[in-house]
Automatic annotation (TrEMBL):
Family affiliation: Belongs to the glycosyl hydrolase 130 family.
Native source species: Stakelama tenebrarum
PANTHER family: GLYCOSIDASE (PTHR34106:SF5)
Protein name: Glycosidase
A molecular function GO annotation: hydrolase activity, acting on glycosyl bonds
Pfam families: Glyco_hydro_130 (PF04041)
Residues annotated as transmembrane: none
Keywords attached to this entry: Glycosidase, Glycosyltransferase, Hydrolase, Transferase
Lineage: Bacteria, Pseudomonadati, Pseudomonadota, Alphaproteobacteria, Sphingomonadales
UniProt superkingdom: Bacteria
Protein backbone atom coordinates (compact mmCIF):
# COMPACT_ATOMS: atom_id res chain seq x y z
CA UNK A 1 0.00 0.00 0.00
CA UNK A 2 1.61 3.23 -1.12
CA UNK A 3 1.48 6.63 0.54
CA UNK A 4 -0.51 7.99 -2.40
CA UNK A 5 -3.58 5.98 -1.44
CA UNK A 6 -4.06 4.76 2.13
CA UNK A 7 -6.28 4.86 5.18
CA UNK A 8 -5.55 7.91 7.33
CA UNK A 9 -8.14 7.39 10.11
CA UNK A 10 -10.20 4.36 11.18
CA UNK A 11 -12.60 3.25 13.96
CA UNK A 12 -9.69 2.09 16.14
CA UNK A 13 -8.39 5.67 16.24
CA UNK A 14 -11.49 6.96 18.07
CA UNK A 15 -11.44 7.12 21.87
CA UNK A 16 -15.07 6.59 22.84
CA UNK A 17 -14.27 7.52 26.43
CA UNK A 18 -14.22 11.08 25.04
CA UNK A 19 -17.38 10.73 22.97
CA UNK A 20 -20.07 13.39 23.52
CA UNK A 21 -22.49 10.51 24.18
CA UNK A 22 -20.63 9.69 27.41
CA UNK A 23 -22.17 12.75 29.05
CA UNK A 24 -25.45 10.89 29.58
CA UNK A 25 -25.37 7.44 27.91
CA UNK A 26 -24.04 4.74 30.22
CA UNK A 27 -24.16 1.64 28.00
CA UNK A 28 -21.37 -0.01 25.97
CA UNK A 29 -20.92 1.31 22.43
CA UNK A 30 -18.47 0.81 19.57
CA UNK A 31 -17.48 2.71 16.44
CA UNK A 32 -19.44 1.32 13.51
CA UNK A 33 -17.54 3.66 11.19
CA UNK A 34 -15.24 6.71 11.19
CA UNK A 35 -15.69 7.94 7.63
CA UNK A 36 -16.93 10.52 5.06
CA UNK A 37 -14.72 13.39 6.27
CA UNK A 38 -15.05 16.98 5.16
CA UNK A 39 -11.62 18.52 4.45
CA UNK A 40 -10.11 21.99 4.60
CA UNK A 41 -6.76 23.69 5.13
CA UNK A 42 -6.29 25.63 8.35
CA UNK A 43 -4.64 29.08 8.52
CA UNK A 44 -1.38 27.61 9.84
CA UNK A 45 -1.09 25.16 6.94
CA UNK A 46 -2.29 21.95 8.55
CA UNK A 47 -5.31 20.13 7.19
CA UNK A 48 -8.52 19.44 9.09
CA UNK A 49 -10.79 16.47 8.52
CA UNK A 50 -14.28 16.62 10.01
CA UNK A 51 -14.89 12.89 10.47
CA UNK A 52 -18.31 11.33 10.83
CA UNK A 53 -18.23 8.93 13.80
CA UNK A 54 -21.12 6.46 13.74
CA UNK A 55 -21.41 5.21 17.32
CA UNK A 56 -23.48 2.06 17.77
CA UNK A 57 -24.74 0.00 20.68
CA UNK A 58 -22.77 -3.15 21.50
CA UNK A 59 -26.09 -4.82 22.36
CA UNK A 60 -28.68 -3.37 19.94
CA UNK A 61 -31.34 -5.90 20.90
CA UNK A 62 -32.88 -6.22 24.35
CA UNK A 63 -35.39 -9.04 24.65
CA UNK A 64 -37.82 -8.62 21.76
CA UNK A 65 -36.89 -5.01 21.09
CA UNK A 66 -34.42 -3.25 18.83
CA UNK A 67 -32.76 -0.26 20.49
CA UNK A 68 -31.90 3.12 19.03
CA UNK A 69 -30.00 6.10 20.46
CA UNK A 70 -31.74 9.48 20.43
CA UNK A 71 -30.66 12.93 21.61
CA UNK A 72 -33.11 14.71 23.87
CA UNK A 73 -33.02 17.85 25.96
CA UNK A 74 -32.36 15.67 29.02
CA UNK A 75 -29.51 13.84 27.31
CA UNK A 76 -29.07 10.75 25.13
CA UNK A 77 -31.76 8.12 25.65
CA UNK A 78 -32.56 4.64 24.34
CA UNK A 79 -35.80 3.92 22.48
CA UNK A 80 -37.27 0.43 22.07
CA UNK A 81 -38.92 -0.89 18.91
CA UNK A 82 -40.57 -4.36 18.80
CA UNK A 83 -38.62 -6.70 16.54
CA UNK A 84 -41.87 -8.10 15.14
CA UNK A 85 -42.67 -4.68 13.68
CA UNK A 86 -39.45 -4.04 11.74
CA UNK A 87 -37.64 -5.27 8.64
CA UNK A 88 -33.94 -4.88 7.91
CA UNK A 89 -31.78 -5.46 4.82
CA UNK A 90 -29.14 -2.81 5.56
CA UNK A 91 -27.01 -3.10 8.72
CA UNK A 92 -27.11 0.68 9.19
CA UNK A 93 -30.88 0.98 9.54
CA UNK A 94 -34.24 -0.75 9.84
CA UNK A 95 -37.75 0.12 8.69
CA UNK A 96 -41.21 -0.32 10.13
CA UNK A 97 -42.66 -3.34 8.36
CA UNK A 98 -45.21 -2.58 5.67
CA UNK A 99 -44.99 1.21 6.07
CA UNK A 100 -44.97 3.24 2.82
CA UNK A 101 -43.36 5.70 2.61
CA UNK A 102 -40.82 4.01 4.89
CA UNK A 103 -40.19 5.07 8.47
CA UNK A 104 -36.57 4.30 9.34
CA UNK A 105 -34.64 3.70 12.52
CA UNK A 106 -30.85 3.96 12.74
CA UNK A 107 -28.61 1.39 14.40
CA UNK A 108 -26.12 4.12 15.35
CA UNK A 109 -25.95 7.83 16.11
CA UNK A 110 -23.40 9.95 14.22
CA UNK A 111 -21.45 12.95 15.46
CA UNK A 112 -18.53 14.89 13.96
CA UNK A 113 -14.92 14.72 15.15
CA UNK A 114 -12.30 17.28 14.02
CA UNK A 115 -9.05 15.48 13.17
CA UNK A 116 -6.04 17.68 12.40
CA UNK A 117 -3.47 16.38 9.91
CA UNK A 118 0.00 17.62 9.03
CA UNK A 119 0.14 19.94 6.04
CA UNK A 120 1.27 17.11 3.77
CA UNK A 121 -1.54 14.84 5.08
CA UNK A 122 0.92 12.15 6.11
CA UNK A 123 0.11 11.99 9.81
CA UNK A 124 -2.52 12.82 12.39
CA UNK A 125 -1.35 15.77 14.51
CA UNK A 126 -4.21 16.08 16.98
CA UNK A 127 -7.74 14.82 17.54
CA UNK A 128 -9.92 17.67 18.84
CA UNK A 129 -12.47 15.90 21.05
CA UNK A 130 -13.18 19.21 22.80
CA UNK A 131 -14.40 20.68 19.50
CA UNK A 132 -16.64 17.77 18.43
CA UNK A 133 -19.92 18.73 16.77
CA UNK A 134 -22.81 16.75 18.23
CA UNK A 135 -26.63 16.93 18.21
CA UNK A 136 -27.97 19.91 20.14
CA UNK A 137 -31.59 20.36 18.98
CA UNK A 138 -34.64 18.17 18.20
CA UNK A 139 -34.14 18.50 14.44
CA UNK A 140 -30.86 16.57 14.78
CA UNK A 141 -32.02 14.04 17.39
CA UNK A 142 -30.75 11.01 15.44
CA UNK A 143 -27.38 12.48 14.51
CA UNK A 144 -25.24 14.53 12.13
CA UNK A 145 -23.81 13.11 8.92
CA UNK A 146 -21.30 13.79 6.16
CA UNK A 147 -19.84 17.26 6.67
CA UNK A 148 -18.54 19.27 3.71
CA UNK A 149 -16.33 22.34 4.31
CA UNK A 150 -15.63 25.26 1.96
CA UNK A 151 -13.54 28.39 2.50
CA UNK A 152 -15.50 31.35 1.12
CA UNK A 153 -14.98 35.03 1.82
CA UNK A 154 -12.51 34.46 4.65
CA UNK A 155 -14.83 32.10 6.57
CA UNK A 156 -15.18 28.33 6.64
CA UNK A 157 -18.72 27.13 5.86
CA UNK A 158 -19.69 23.59 6.84
CA UNK A 159 -22.86 21.88 5.62
CA UNK A 160 -24.13 18.87 7.55
CA UNK A 161 -27.06 16.50 7.06
CA UNK A 162 -29.24 16.30 10.18
CA UNK A 163 -31.53 13.35 10.89
CA UNK A 164 -34.65 13.44 13.05
CA UNK A 165 -38.28 12.36 13.20
CA UNK A 166 -39.20 15.99 12.39
CA UNK A 167 -37.33 16.28 9.10
CA UNK A 168 -34.24 15.27 7.16
CA UNK A 169 -32.55 18.61 6.57
CA UNK A 170 -29.28 20.44 5.89
CA UNK A 171 -27.62 22.51 8.62
CA UNK A 172 -24.98 25.21 8.26
CA UNK A 173 -22.05 25.87 10.58
CA UNK A 174 -19.51 28.70 10.23
CA UNK A 175 -15.98 29.19 11.52
CA UNK A 176 -13.55 32.09 11.50
CA UNK A 177 -10.53 29.85 12.11
CA UNK A 178 -11.46 26.58 10.43
CA UNK A 179 -11.58 24.68 13.72
CA UNK A 180 -14.33 26.14 15.95
CA UNK A 181 -17.77 25.95 14.32
CA UNK A 182 -20.88 27.89 15.35
CA UNK A 183 -24.31 26.60 14.31
CA UNK A 184 -26.40 28.80 12.02
CA UNK A 185 -29.40 26.50 11.84
CA UNK A 186 -31.34 24.87 9.02
CA UNK A 187 -30.76 26.14 5.47
CA UNK A 188 -32.53 23.42 3.45
CA UNK A 189 -35.77 22.09 4.86
CA UNK A 190 -35.98 18.89 2.83
CA UNK A 191 -33.97 15.71 2.41
CA UNK A 192 -30.73 16.64 0.70
CA UNK A 193 -27.63 14.67 1.67
CA UNK A 194 -25.09 16.34 -0.59
CA UNK A 195 -25.17 20.13 -0.28
CA UNK A 196 -21.67 21.48 -0.96
CA UNK A 197 -20.62 25.16 -1.18
CA UNK A 198 -18.34 26.27 -4.03
CA UNK A 199 -14.98 27.59 -2.77
CA UNK A 200 -15.60 31.04 -4.15
CA UNK A 201 -18.47 33.20 -5.39
CA UNK A 202 -19.27 32.74 -9.09
CA UNK A 203 -20.89 35.98 -10.26
CA UNK A 204 -20.45 37.46 -6.78
CA UNK A 205 -22.91 35.12 -5.05
CA UNK A 206 -22.62 32.01 -2.92
CA UNK A 207 -23.23 28.91 -4.99
CA UNK A 208 -23.78 25.31 -3.96
CA UNK A 209 -24.37 21.84 -5.28
CA UNK A 210 -27.54 20.21 -3.96
CA UNK A 211 -29.20 16.84 -4.42
CA UNK A 212 -32.87 16.96 -3.43
CA UNK A 213 -34.53 13.60 -2.88
CA UNK A 214 -38.15 12.57 -3.26
CA UNK A 215 -40.47 9.60 -3.25
CA UNK A 216 -40.78 9.41 -7.04
CA UNK A 217 -39.08 10.60 -10.23
CA UNK A 218 -40.30 10.88 -13.81
CA UNK A 219 -39.00 9.29 -16.98
CA UNK A 220 -36.83 11.25 -19.41
CA UNK A 221 -37.81 11.21 -23.08
CA UNK A 222 -36.99 7.89 -24.80
CA UNK A 223 -34.25 9.51 -26.88
CA UNK A 224 -32.73 11.38 -23.90
CA UNK A 225 -29.16 10.46 -22.86
CA UNK A 226 -30.12 10.85 -19.20
CA UNK A 227 -31.11 8.03 -16.86
CA UNK A 228 -33.38 10.08 -14.60
CA UNK A 229 -33.57 9.86 -10.81
CA UNK A 230 -31.57 11.73 -8.12
CA UNK A 231 -29.17 14.26 -9.68
CA UNK A 232 -26.85 17.11 -8.72
CA UNK A 233 -28.55 20.50 -8.91
CA UNK A 234 -27.31 24.07 -8.39
CA UNK A 235 -28.48 26.85 -6.07
CA UNK A 236 -27.36 30.42 -5.32
CA UNK A 237 -27.55 32.62 -2.25
CA UNK A 238 -26.74 36.25 -1.34
CA UNK A 239 -25.59 35.34 2.19
CA UNK A 240 -25.11 31.56 2.48
CA UNK A 241 -28.36 31.25 4.43
CA UNK A 242 -31.16 31.80 1.92
CA UNK A 243 -31.05 29.70 -1.24
CA UNK A 244 -32.71 29.77 -4.64
CA UNK A 245 -32.48 26.65 -6.84
CA UNK A 246 -31.18 27.26 -10.34
CA UNK A 247 -33.61 27.04 -13.26
CA UNK A 248 -30.91 25.30 -15.31
CA UNK A 249 -30.65 21.50 -15.17
CA UNK A 250 -27.80 20.09 -13.14
CA UNK A 251 -25.35 17.25 -13.54
CA UNK A 252 -27.27 14.04 -14.22
CA UNK A 253 -26.53 10.35 -14.57
CA UNK A 254 -26.24 9.09 -18.13
CA UNK A 255 -27.97 5.98 -19.40
CA UNK A 256 -25.63 3.00 -19.48
CA UNK A 257 -23.00 4.63 -17.28
CA UNK A 258 -21.58 3.23 -14.04
CA UNK A 259 -23.63 5.85 -12.19
CA UNK A 260 -26.99 5.22 -13.83
CA UNK A 261 -28.74 4.72 -10.47
CA UNK A 262 -27.94 8.19 -9.08
CA UNK A 263 -25.25 10.82 -8.66
CA UNK A 264 -24.45 13.22 -5.82
CA UNK A 265 -21.99 15.91 -4.81
CA UNK A 266 -18.62 14.93 -3.37
CA UNK A 267 -15.87 17.51 -2.89
CA UNK A 268 -16.29 21.25 -2.73
CA UNK A 269 -15.92 22.71 -6.27
CA UNK A 270 -12.58 24.55 -6.60
CA UNK A 271 -11.55 27.01 -9.30
CA UNK A 272 -8.84 25.88 -11.74
CA UNK A 273 -7.57 27.47 -14.98
CA UNK A 274 -9.94 25.14 -16.86
CA UNK A 275 -13.01 25.96 -14.75
CA UNK A 276 -14.62 24.70 -11.55
CA UNK A 277 -13.40 21.20 -10.72
CA UNK A 278 -15.74 18.94 -8.78
CA UNK A 279 -15.42 15.31 -7.77
CA UNK A 280 -18.75 13.56 -7.33
CA UNK A 281 -20.08 10.09 -6.61
CA UNK A 282 -22.02 7.87 -8.96
CA UNK A 283 -23.90 4.75 -7.93
CA UNK A 284 -24.40 1.52 -9.84
CA UNK A 285 -27.29 -0.70 -8.75
CA UNK A 286 -26.17 -3.79 -6.85
CA UNK A 287 -27.71 -5.42 -3.77
CA UNK A 288 -29.39 -3.00 -1.36
CA UNK A 289 -26.67 -0.34 -1.20
CA UNK A 290 -25.13 -0.16 -4.67
CA UNK A 291 -21.55 0.34 -5.84
CA UNK A 292 -20.21 3.85 -5.15
CA UNK A 293 -17.42 5.25 -7.32
CA UNK A 294 -15.85 8.70 -7.74
CA UNK A 295 -16.06 10.63 -11.02
CA UNK A 296 -15.27 14.23 -11.93
CA UNK A 297 -16.56 17.16 -13.92
CA UNK A 298 -15.51 20.66 -15.01
CA UNK A 299 -17.94 23.57 -14.83
CA UNK A 300 -17.74 26.90 -16.62
CA UNK A 301 -15.88 29.58 -14.68
CA UNK A 302 -18.50 32.30 -15.18
CA UNK A 303 -21.63 30.13 -15.32
CA UNK A 304 -21.07 26.86 -13.43
CA UNK A 305 -24.48 25.55 -14.51
CA UNK A 306 -22.81 25.11 -17.90
CA UNK A 307 -21.05 21.73 -17.70
CA UNK A 308 -17.88 21.74 -19.79
CA UNK A 309 -16.85 18.15 -19.18
CA UNK A 310 -18.32 15.15 -17.37
CA UNK A 311 -15.99 12.20 -16.91
CA UNK A 312 -18.34 9.34 -16.00
CA UNK A 313 -17.02 6.45 -18.08
CA UNK A 314 -13.75 5.65 -16.31
CA UNK A 315 -13.94 6.10 -12.52
CA UNK A 316 -11.41 8.40 -10.90
CA UNK A 317 -11.55 6.23 -7.77
CA UNK A 318 -13.06 2.89 -6.83
CA UNK A 319 -13.26 1.00 -3.54
CA UNK A 320 -10.05 -0.90 -2.78
CA UNK A 321 -10.44 -3.96 -0.52
CA UNK A 322 -6.70 -3.95 0.06
CA UNK A 323 -6.97 -0.70 2.01
CA UNK A 324 -9.33 -2.19 4.58
CA UNK A 325 -7.75 -5.67 4.71
CA UNK A 326 -6.16 -4.93 8.09
CA UNK A 327 -9.54 -4.08 9.65
CA UNK A 328 -11.67 -6.48 7.61
CA UNK A 329 -13.20 -7.98 10.76
CA UNK A 330 -14.95 -4.63 11.29
CA UNK A 331 -16.52 -4.58 7.82
CA UNK A 332 -20.30 -4.63 7.74
CA UNK A 333 -21.05 -3.64 4.11
CA UNK A 334 -20.56 -6.31 1.43
CA UNK A 335 -20.80 -3.79 -1.44
CA UNK A 336 -17.79 -1.73 -2.66
CA UNK A 337 -18.20 1.89 -1.55
CA UNK A 338 -15.90 4.89 -1.90
CA UNK A 339 -17.59 8.16 -0.99
CA UNK A 340 -15.38 11.18 -1.71
CA UNK A 341 -16.09 14.20 0.49
CA UNK A 342 -13.15 16.63 0.53
CA UNK A 343 -10.27 18.08 -1.49
CA UNK A 344 -7.33 20.37 -0.70
CA UNK A 345 -4.74 21.98 -2.97
CA UNK A 346 -1.22 20.67 -2.33
CA UNK A 347 0.84 22.29 -5.09
CA UNK A 348 1.18 19.95 -8.05
CA UNK A 349 -1.49 17.60 -6.71
CA UNK A 350 -4.69 17.47 -4.69
CA UNK A 351 -5.18 15.71 -1.38
CA UNK A 352 -8.53 13.93 -1.63
CA UNK A 353 -10.32 12.31 1.31
CA UNK A 354 -13.12 9.77 1.12
CA UNK A 355 -15.10 7.34 3.17
CA UNK A 356 -13.92 3.83 2.35
CA UNK A 357 -16.51 1.05 2.75
CA UNK A 358 -18.49 3.32 5.13
CA UNK A 359 -15.83 2.29 7.63
CA UNK A 360 -12.70 4.47 7.53
CA UNK A 361 -11.15 7.63 6.05
CA UNK A 362 -9.12 7.21 2.88
CA UNK A 363 -6.48 9.72 1.75
CA UNK A 364 -5.49 9.85 -1.91
CA UNK A 365 -3.07 12.09 -3.79
CA UNK A 366 -4.11 12.90 -7.34
CA UNK A 367 -1.85 14.84 -9.72
CA UNK A 368 -3.45 17.96 -11.15
CA UNK A 369 -2.48 16.87 -14.62
CA UNK A 370 -5.04 14.08 -14.24
CA UNK A 371 -7.75 16.71 -14.82
CA UNK A 372 -6.20 18.35 -17.87
Amino acid sequence: MGDDDRLIFSPDDVDLARSPLRASLDVPTYVLGAFNPGLTRLPGGNLLMMVRVAEALCEPVAGNNALTIRWSERGYVLDRHPMADIEMDDPRQFALAGRRPPLLGLTSLSWLLPVELSGDARQVVRIHYDKAVAPSAPYMEYGLEDARISLVGGCWWMTVCAVSSQRHCTLLYRSVNGLDYEPLGIILDHQNKDMVFFEGKPGGAFMALTRPLGECYFLPAPDSPWAGGPAIQFATSPDGLHWKPSDAPGLRARKGSLSALRVGGGTQPVLTPQGWLMLYHGVERRDSVGVYRTFWALLDREDPTHILRQEDEVPLMEADPGLTAGISEQMYLPTPVVFTTGLADAGDHYVVVSGEADLACRMTRIAKERFA
